[in-house]
Specification:
Blueprint: H1 7-36, H2 41-69, H3 71-91, H4 95-105, H5 116-124, H6 134-155, H7 158-166, H8 170-173, H9 175-193, H10 217-234, H11 239-250, H12 254-282, H13 284-301, H14 308-322, H15 325-336, H16 342-358, H17 360-370, H18 377-397
Helix pairs in contact: 1-6, 1-9, 1-11, 1-12, 2-3, 2-4, 2-5, 2-16, 2-17, 3-4, 3-9, 5-16, 6-12, 6-15, 10-16, 10-18, 12-13, 12-14, 12-15, 13-14, 13-15, 13-18
Length: about 400
């Protein structure tokens, strides 16, 4: 049987799909909405950074309290905050209020998912899947996420259709997008409450869950430092920034952006589905490093694309490999730490990624505004730093053996 097809697994995949679907809509359309309603490129970068910083704050709370309060309650509370973000986007276009709204919503506008939802869900997966199917479970989880992103990216064309074919004003044309975010948040809250008890971690003898990993602290902190370098580089080229680059560099329309992004997400989805099987053959670390290096060569090359078709081909080539390290990275972290330290470990590594990535969009927005004659600087910086991360990760962990599987996990 395919992994994650029991009651809790199906609910987990449903939640992942709903969440990433609305992320896909917003990743394509939000930056265009901001750009066409008077925001400068620098301001757009600040807004995107604020969204990432909101994920940082929420992830801190997850690390400290999620297992103590309960994973189901924590996920439902985060979902309701997502709905609140949709309400704020729907009722105001004020810069400060929008930044506050995106901060509390913990939205992932990067083309992949980071943040508190991911921290909790990736610690649930080992508890609802067997050891032999764990790598494929993480692949399936991420595959569903990228399918959601892809379909959401296609739906990102709705505002343009409403403007051109129905005659909606710009702001009114985006109201269905914000309504979808509200509805998704409410539905997600209900889905998480339907999870079974086995997704929770029992706390025995009054032990507090407000702790960072203990026996695995050294390895978790080392991984976190390396992941932070990768995410800092990734902050220059999150999907929303890439969409903005296509818009600024080639004047690409929202409908074309939706198609390009959706195609990229489809390619990414199937590559992540293959990642688990590749990792079973060559190992988690090798899969993480070797596919990531190749993808970053393509990423840096986008800087020199002379015309749109070349840029799109290089972008798709990058997407075909760039996220194969995601399920393998998640499985690698979960394999390195004991079962009772998985939520803190996932939270700490995710937190390090969020913090370092939060500054990237602001810097990227500034560079797009300050260097109009060579907007490809973002791709050179992002790709170069990411390759440095890959080499450091391989050097640091190539001789570190994975612990033997715990028969209780």
């Amino acid at each position: 049987m395919a992994p994650l097809l029991d009651h809790d697994g199906i609910l987990l995949l449903l939640a992942k799909f709903l969440r990433t679907f609305v992320y896909g809509i917003l990743t394509v359309s939000l930056v265009i909405y901001l750009a066409t309603t008077g925001f400068t490129t620098f301001q757009i970068g600040i807004v995107l950074s604020t969204a990432v910083l909101g994920g940082v704050f929420s992830t801190i709370l997850v690390v400290l309290f999620a297992d103590k309060v309960g994973r189901r309650k924590s996920l439902s509370a985060l979902s309701l905050l997502t709905a609140l973000t949709g309400i704020i986007l729907a009722v105001t276009s004020d810069f400060v209020l929008l930044a506050v709204g995106l901060f509390i919503g913990s939205l992932s506008l990067t083309g992949g998912e980071i943040g508190p939802f991911l921290s909790i869900e990736q610690s649930i997966i080992p508890q609802i899947s067997t050891e032999p199917e764990r790598n494929r479970s993480f692949s399936m989880y991420n595959f569903i996420g990228y399918v959601g992103f892809s379909l959401g990216s296609l739906a990102g064309v709705i505002p343009e259709i409403l403007q051109k074919q129905v005659g909606f004003p710009v702001r009114d044309s985006y109201l269905p997008v914000f309504a979808a975010l509200i509805l998704a948040g409410l539905v997600l809250a209900a889905v998480y409450q339907a999870f079974g008890l086995r997704v929770e971690v029992a706390t025995s003898n009054g032990q507090s869950r407000m702790s960072l990993p203990r026996s695995s602290r050294k390895v978790v902190l080392k991984l976190s430092a390396l992941f932070s370098l990768d995410s800092f580089a990734g902050g220059f080229v999150i999907q929303s920034i890439i969409s903005l680059w296509f818009f600024r560099q080639f004047g690409v329309s929202l409908s074309s952006l939706s198609l390009i992004t959706a195609t990229g997400q489809v390619v990414t989805a199937f590559s992540t589905l293959a990642a688990g099987r590749v990792a079973d053959r060559i190992g988690l670390l090798n899969t993480m490093v070797f596919t990531h290096i190749a993808s970053n060569v393509f990423l840096a090359s986008i800087a020199f694309a002379p015309v749109l078709p070349v840029a799109v081909v290089l972008y798709l080539a990058r997407q075909s490999l760039s996220q194969m390290d995601v399920p393998t990275r998640q499985a690698y972290v979960m394999a390195l730490v004991p079962v009772d330290e998985r939520t803190p470990a996932a939270g700490v590594t995710t937190l390090s990624r969020n913090i370092s990535q939060s500054v990237g969009p602001t810097i990227a927005g500034y560079l797009l505004q300050a260097l109009p004659t060579f907007l490809g600087t973002l791709f050179l910086l992002g790709g170069g730093l990411k390759i440095a991360y890959d080499l450091l990760l391989y050097r640091s962990f190539r001789n570190v053996p994975l612990p033997k599987p715990d028969p209780q996990t």
